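Q: What residues go here?
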């Protein structure tokens, strides 16, 4: 084993012992060798590269403040914007009829319940449900047996009371009877006459008749059935003419008056002309609407009661323009209006009011009698802006 002096990377001398090959081999098998780490000369190179990259990025970002773009001086030299191109169509005002429209329901002219005026057994029923009857037609009859007995009894009582009254009167003339007896006989006679009258009225009540012409809507009555006095036995409906009831809002009440003509379109396809016959003077508390009625002829009974109907009532005339709904605009305050182009090619905004609506367009008021309406591009221009108008292509 020999001592050998060596130098490290730092320049210090380190003395190592050099062992013989045989000794080295023996120690390798007995103990592990210690690892050594020396510093790398290129370890600090990456730090300098990162610093140079940061300096380059900061310099590039700040170059815009030191050397401004050459295009900034050319902003004031750009050409002015051209006017927006729009399509216009000349519109001429026309006289149009205004209408009030409302949904209503067809009601029968008269509708009543048939009631029994006496008690007894039904002897016969002369009509059927759904049958048309005239005023005074017999619906059913009661068994008259009891009434005939009551009538005969009342007649006999009347005859007896009449004889007693006659005898008392004669005896009074002779001075045998007193005035009190005559008065009693007179009262008995009056009572007997009342019984006869009641029997006659009861005889009339044995027949159930129709109070007016109409159709038997319901009939709950069979022969041999016992019916109590006052019981409902059927329903009679008169649908000629029909009454169409509508509800009119407060703001439209002044547009209607009694006697106005009306067109009524029923849901079953029937169309009839009618007349306003009633306008209410008290609003419903729930809806604040007024009841109005339109009378419609229904002599053929083709229109049943209870179906829905649309009522169209002419309310006057107005001078208006017919336009497409798509060209209507809103200003900054939300006002509905139309944009037009004047003689100086400037946009003008006119508030309008829709007076009539149809499937293919609307009628509006508030525009000059003749005006150029913007039909294409109205959403890209404002009032007062100069535009480049051109005639709109006609629709095919």
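A:
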């Amino acid at each position: 084993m020999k001592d050998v002096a060596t130098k490290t990377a730092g320049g210090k001398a380190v003395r190592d012992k050099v062992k013989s090959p045989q000794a080295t081999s023996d120690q390798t098998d007995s103990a592990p060798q210690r690892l050594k780490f020396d510093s790398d000369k290129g370890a600090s190179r990456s730090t300098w590269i990162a610093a140079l990259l940061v300096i380059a990025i900061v310099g590039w970002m700040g170059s815009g403040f030191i050397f401004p773009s050459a295009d900034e001086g050319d902003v004031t030299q750009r050409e002015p914007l051209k006017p927006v191109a729009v399509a216009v169509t000349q519109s001429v005002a026309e006289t149009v009829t205004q209408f009030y429209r409302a949904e209503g329901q067809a009601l029968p002219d008269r509708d009543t319940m048939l009631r029994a005026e006496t008690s007894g057994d039904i002897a016969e029923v002369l009509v059927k449900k759904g049958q048309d009857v005239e005023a005074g037609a017999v619906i059913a009859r009661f068994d008259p047996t009891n009434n005939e007995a009551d009538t005969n009894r009342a007649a006999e009582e009347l005859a007896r009371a009449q004889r007693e009254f006659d005898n008392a009167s004669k005896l009074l003339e002779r001075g045998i009877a007193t005035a009190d007896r005559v008065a009693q006989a007179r009262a008995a006679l009056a009572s007997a006459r009342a019984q006869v009258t009641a029997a006659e009225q009861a005889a009339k009540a044995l027949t159930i008749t129709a109070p007016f012409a109409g159709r038997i809507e319901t009939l709950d009555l069979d022969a041999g059935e016992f019916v109590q006095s006052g019981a409902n036995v059927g329903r009679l409906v008169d649908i000629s003419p029909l009454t169409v009831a509508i509800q009119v809002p407060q703001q439209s009440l002044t547009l209607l008056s009694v006697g106005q003509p009306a067109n009524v379109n029923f849901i079953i396809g029937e169309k009839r002309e009618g007349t306003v016959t009633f306008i209410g003077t008290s609003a419903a508390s729930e809806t604040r609407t007024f009841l109005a009625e339109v009378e419609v002829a229904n002599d053929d009974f083709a229109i049943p009661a209870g179906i829905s109907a649309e009522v169209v009532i002419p309310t006057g005339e107005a001078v208006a323009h017919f336009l497409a709904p798509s060209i209507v605009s809103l200003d900054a305050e939300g006002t509905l209006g139309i944009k037009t182009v004047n003689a100086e090619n400037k946009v003008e905004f006119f508030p309008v009011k829709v007076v009539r609506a149809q499937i293919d367009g609307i009628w509006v008021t508030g525009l000059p009698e003749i005006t150029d309406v913007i039909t294409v591009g109205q959403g890209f221009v404002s009032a007062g802006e100069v535009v480049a108008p051109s005639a709109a292509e006609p629709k095919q």
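A: Context that may help when evaluating the design: The first helix runs from residue 21 to 30. The first strand starts at residue 2 and ends at 7.
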